[in-house]
Amino acid sequence: MAAENRGWFYVKVPDASEPRAQDIYELRVLPMPVVEEGMILVKKTMIVVAPMARTYLEIPNFDTKTEKLGLKKTQLNQPGKCESVGIVMESKSKKYKLGDRVLLPFNDLLEYSVHRDDGKDSEFGPPLKVFDFVRTETQLTALSPGAGLTAYCAMNHPCGRVEEPLCSGGLLSCFKGLFQKKPQKTVLITSAAGAVGTIAGQLYKRKGCKVIGVTGTREKADQLLNFGYDAAIAYKTEDMDQQLAQLAPEGIDVFMDNVGSHQLDIGTKHMNVSGKVVIVGCMSEVDRFGHEVHGYKGYLHVAARELTVGGFLVYNHVKEIPLAIMSMAWMLQSGAVKPAATVVEGSFEGWAKTVDAMMSGATFGRLLLNLAKS
Amino acid sequence: MAAENRGWFYVKVPDASEPRAQDIYELRVLPMPVVEEGMILVKKTMIVVAPMARTYLEIPNFDTKTEKLGLKKTQLNQPGKCESVGIVMESKSKKYKLGDRVLLPFNDLLEYSVHRDDGKDSEFGPPLKVFDFVRTETQLTALSPGAGLTAYCAMNHPCGRVEEPLCSGGLLSCFKGLFQKKPQKTVLITSAAGAVGTIAGQLYKRKGCKVIGVTGTREKADQLLNFGYDAAIAYKTEDMDQQLAQLAPEGIDVFMDNVGSHQLDIGTKHMNVSGKVVIVGCMSEVDRFGHEVHGYKGYLHVAARELTVGGFLVYNHVKEIPLAIMSMAWMLQSGAVKPAATVVEGSFEGWAKTVDAMMSGATFGRLLLNLAKS
Q1: A209, A230, B40, B90: most buried by Cβ count inside 10 Å?
Q2: Domain check: are B305 and B170 in the same one?
Q3: Which residues from chain A sit within 8 angstroms of residue B282, using beta carbons?
Q4: Which domain, by its residues, includes A275?
Q5: What is the 3-state secondary structure (H, E, C) of chain A?
């Protein structure tokens, strides 16, 4: 085992419009943490590369109030945050043994970390053991809060839902509902080839929806047809507005947006009256937080068509996570849903460079940095 | 009675960013309509001056789909639309007598019009007789779909509501709710001195809320304290952002927005997590439909704080109107709510000039053009 620990620290408030991880973070050497009774030492073996690492930084004069929903912001001179799977290197707990794989859902960007086996040092409880039959990639895609579980919970959000909860309209309408054929709903998903989109497409397809995705390239758009999508638009080379008019002349009923700005505007233009938009992310504006913002110009349609737009943040849905895990695990086991990931081999000290290289948008599914071979 | 009829017709698609009524509409002379059996002839005596007259124009390449919610767009070379009260000048119906006052909720901008007493020529049914004890000004403020009834229904929209419907959480929570003291909600209303705002302030106050308004001038802001508002901000001379921080350090729970763009952005910045925004109007962008749009830049907070933003259009709530009228009439009778209007004397042929003069934002409450003395 290494004699010392390392961590990526948030050292510079981003001032450019598209800051690089290499400019914001700095690698620091730290003493190895001490493993006390009832604790385990974990070494990260696979790290999720996601905009999260940049979005959740504390930026002066930009209070998003997300802390109140359970998300802790990274302060200057604190380690960055990430989702990861690690391996138990030392155990002073009866609950974990050497070599166990554990999920660290929202954790410090340190190579080694210690965790109490009673979970009292984390709002997520003790590190979750990864089941033997679940691959590390699958854990960090379909079964991770930032990907598959977000897709699952956002689809069950009032603004992401394609069907009302059972018996919400009373016993009679519940009874009627069992025998009534419901009209097919049309769903639009942006960043369809991303960590959330690749799972969301499959989940909506299972609900009987017509699912349309938006992604960067035609190559990725074609791949999406294997992930629940009926059709996909390559926005970099195709006119999203024209394509939507052709692909969904009936209009969009539910829109799961991960991108914001232009794509949110164009999607909204094609919404049906009384339609619903669930905003899961604002990837296109993530780096501009506090700087110049394009905004949601399509909001004029929100009033004119009585749309409902709901924000979704998975940290506000911790109570729903156990059911989401059970449902997703069942669908994975039965083959009803499959994970999508791009795994890059690398090292812990190469993290920032890898992040910047992987953020070009050329990858498919969740982006994972594998440290196991380094 | 006049030998001929007159009407204001939509003749030019607006191309400037702030078009004047005089540029878009033209006064035309028409033959007097023929009164057939079962019909009445009505002469307008008071017309509502509202942005509606401009918003609801058919503009090429700008499909708002509002028609599907029941609102009929005005085509080029059709008469404009307005809300008005008129007087029955000729009656071939047993249901109406000469001199009856009738409400025409969304009607052609003609001096004289004929209406069937069975209502088969209007989506709003037959002209509604104004009760003897209701003044014309009160009918067109508190009891009109575009003002008081919009305020009432928007407050009962899921995104405008400050309390959940009785028993929505089941019998036990309903029982508990009867005995539980609920924390006070803070409500923000923009265009507080407008037709909707002057009523909405009083309605939210009756629900026990702390109500904060935004209007143009300090003079109007002071007047608002007589219309349910606990405090009001004069945005033209005061910093809305700073004022909100001082007046509502606890944060905003419900935001009824009639203005859009900057005021919507600033209000959203002060929203509490899981807060709700009901968009009733976009007055600041109304004249820019299809042109340059500022947009909703505060939508980044919608995701970060899990806000829900709902559009409201009264034409989608026709079923709720009878209950709204009953409730509002009761509150008016008991003095619990009072109407606010600015009445200007004028003539039918002076309509466009009066509209342009009255749109400066210097008036308080609903703007009414009285033709009775012309």
Answers
A1: B40
A2: yes
A3: 299-300, 303
A4: 158-311
A5: CCCEEEEEEECCCCCCCCCCHHHHEEEEEEECCCCCCCEEEEEEEEEECCCHHHHCECCCCCCCCHHHHCCCCECCCCECEEEEEEEEEEECCCCCCCCCEEEEEEEECECEEEEECCCCCCCCCCCEECCCCCCHHHHHHCCCCCCHHHHHHHHCCCCCCCCCCCCCCCHHHHHHHHHCCCCCCEEEEECCCCCCHHHHHHHHHHCCCEEEEEECCHHHHHHHCCCCCCEEEECCCCCHHHHHHHHCCCCEEEEEECCCHHHHHHHHHCEEEEEEEEECCCCCCHHHCCCCCCCECCHHHHHHCCCEEEECCHHHHHHHHHHHHHHHHHHHHCCCCCCCEEEEECCHHHHHHHHHHHCCCCCCCEEEEECCCC
Specify the CATH number for the domain of residue B232.
3.40.50.720
Cβ of residue B316 closer than 8 Å to a chain A Cβ = yes
pLDDT band at residue B29 under the 50/70/90 scheme: very high
Query: Across the A/B interface, how many CB contacts are shorter than 8 Å?
Result: 139
Is position B166 within any domain? yes
Please compute the mean of the pLDDT values over residues B360-367 and round it to a whole number.
84
- For A64, the closest of B280, B304, B311 (CB atoms) is B304
Number of domains in chain B: 2
**Same domain flag for A172 and A302:** yes
Q: Which of A68, A299, A305 sits opposite B273 (nearest CB)?
A: A68
Return the pLDDT at B373.
80
Is the CB of B168 inside 8 Å of chain A's CB atoms?
Answer: no
Q: Tell me: do B143 and B163 sit in the same domain.
A: no
B107, B47: one domain: yes
Considering the entire predicted model, what is its pTM? 0.90
Q: Do B174 and B305 reside in the same domain of the chain? A: yes
